[in-house]
């Protein structure tokens, strides 16, 4: 039932009294109107703009957000209104839907934002009224096409494992994918041009032998032209065979237009080879040479404009058909009339109706050769009508074809432009992404500071740090940190016990990842530690390149941290993590300079210039030694863990 | 020889005649001349009938609705008929929306006539509200009176079998085809027979208003159903 007439339901029910005297059976009991309240106004606050409507209006469509109890989630107790943080302009259309029962699509609105709003309010777009539905569908289709275009471009991305055949096919279809393809593309183009020019020049009369008539060049330099022709045909044949080999679906390839053109282009040559000795068919052979001109169509692989033209003609087939049909009709009519009009005049060229066809065509297309001219007055009258109508008949379907061509052409232009811009867009997106990830790694360092400071309660540094990250960011970083801590690898656990190295997985930047990947993973650390004494600290080298990293000496549980030249430690008496940061990066302008006592890095052999290390050492009970001896008793609490991470 | 001359002459005449006709048609198309009066386009637009109801106080006095109820009724009325009056087609349209399975147009036609008390072809808000007042807030006598008025199609004071049959068919039409058990052709007729047997006391083939009211007041079912819709608004 249309909700718009919900207001008339009382009337319909009242009118049912008209059935009562007629009814044989007793009527069912009417539903009790429990909780019948008076209709009240409700206020909908959409991003500050207040809309008011009757509650009953919204109840008309109970399967939408506003009509159901879902809106109670948005009820604001203090202001006694429903607050939606959405676009108020689109909400106007949504509310009008409740009021009038018809959903309208405003033309100035972006289609995807409109769709999103409708989805939010639980309204199905199919109920858009007829007045706006077509516009909506058109816009949606356009948008979908655009998105599809973008997605298609992604398909060009090179798949890592392509067979030779696939590579070849790709090279043929997109010459820009590799240099070889480009070379091939230009070479074939060149030979097509050569072939066409040869065919043309063949017929030009060259200088003649004095006592003979002019001979075309083809007959004078037969051998040269034959060689040229052979060369071109060889190239075309090889190309065709290669394409046939590389095609994913050979049957489909053979049926495609381009391959038919290829075949037609090279076939006359072979037929000619076969039939040269037979004099009778040489006439036919000469005719076959005409087909050589089809080689020029091979250029359509090279020119996008030609392809668009062909596509346009194909898509305007109905208009062209109409043009042809109406022209034919007009030609026949006018030819007949002209023939009978000119029948009387002497020495008339209009000898038959088909003969008059020629006159009609020439007149209707406003060519007017003048080889056939009407001489009688009637003929002249009809002739002028004929030429006027010809102009009209031809002018009518042409704009349709032109507009079609223009639309397709511009679509293509747009697609090309978008593809060109895409690279720049992707680069920008990548930059911003790396920005955010480096922000994490960056602030992780500061985050460590934060936690340490919170533990020690130093306020001034805290203030400095807290300015930098918003609550959202810091929570996000904490989350990533938790993830790091969770992913403990059993393998590294053991190694870490041996080498006091990295205990868990960590987020690192790309550079470091590449390096360590090349080195065979984070886990293969040269074991240098056993030789070191504890005074040197645990040399948990994470990589061979990194030397001179000093680590915290094992602090006694009770002793306060004492500083190494490059370290800064906080010890926490309760056995929580100690944090220390070694700032090694000479180029970094990061906030680790807040670490006051960090000297500028000692010369680093490490070739990666971006490595900053954070060292977390867990204070161990005094029993265990920090030496990099293997077989430390199990349990992370017993180790002196030195974790080196690159930031 | 002469034939040839006549041929050319004839064709010339034909040519000239064609030319003249074509130019006349062209001028006609351009609107410079017109042949007959019928072709002149009717400039008169259908002027929109607009109607404003009487004031709220008057309606309050005339009907048994409260102010609020009248407000609610008017809002619903105006929403569907912005011009202030309902014509028969709109009426049929609205009523049909409540009975999607069947064809409610015939019954809506009778209903329209019942509401349109002054028989001017359109139901204004006053007619509407008066009718509703009787149906929802009236006495049983008034309701029965209204029902009789509905059945009496030609408003002559008698319900004949034909009139009743029309009404019955209209009611059964509203049910539509998909019923269980399937409605047969003679069902309305049988129903009419039953009705007349009950109502027509003096067996004269027509039912008068008094017979009708008497009979209905004696029937418990009907009495009870009269009070069914009292809480509608």
From TrEMBL, chain A:
It is a multi-pass membrane protein. It is found in: Cell membrane; Cell projection, Dendrite. Keywords: Cell membrane, Cell projection, Ion channel, Ion transport, Membrane, Metal-binding, Phosphoprotein, Potassium, Potassium channel, Potassium transport, Signal, Transmembrane, Transmembrane helix, Transport, Voltage-gated channel, Zinc. It holds the Pfam family Ion_trans. SMART domains: BTB (SM00225). The chain crosses the membrane at residues 180-201, 221-241, 253-275, 320-341, 353-369, 381-402. Residues 1-16 form the signal peptide. The keyword Phosphoprotein applies. It comes from the Eukaryota. Residues 40-139 form the BTB domain. GO terms for biological process: action potential; potassium ion export across plasma membrane; protein homooligomerization. One of its GO terms (molecular function) is A-type (transient outward) potassium channel activity. GO terms for cellular component: dendritic spine; neuronal cell body; postsynaptic membrane; voltage-gated potassium channel complex. It catalyses: K(+)(in) = K(+)(out). The keyword Transmembrane helix applies. PANTHER family: POTASSIUM VOLTAGE-GATED CHANNEL SUBFAMILY D MEMBER 3 (PTHR11537:SF182), VOLTAGE-GATED POTASSIUM CHANNEL (PTHR11537). This is BTB domain-containing protein. It comes from Oreochromis aureus (Israeli tilapia).
Automatic annotation (TrEMBL), chain B:
InterPro entries: EF-hand-dom_pair, EF_Hand_1_Ca_BS, EF_hand_dom, Recoverin. GO terms for biological process: regulation of potassium ion transmembrane transport. PROSITE patterns: EF_HAND_1, EF_HAND_2. The chain crosses the membrane at residues 12-35. Signal peptide: none annotated. Belongs to the recoverin family. PANTHER family: CALCIUM BINDING PROTEINS, KV CHANNEL-INTERACTING PROTEIN 4. This is Kv channel-interacting protein 4.
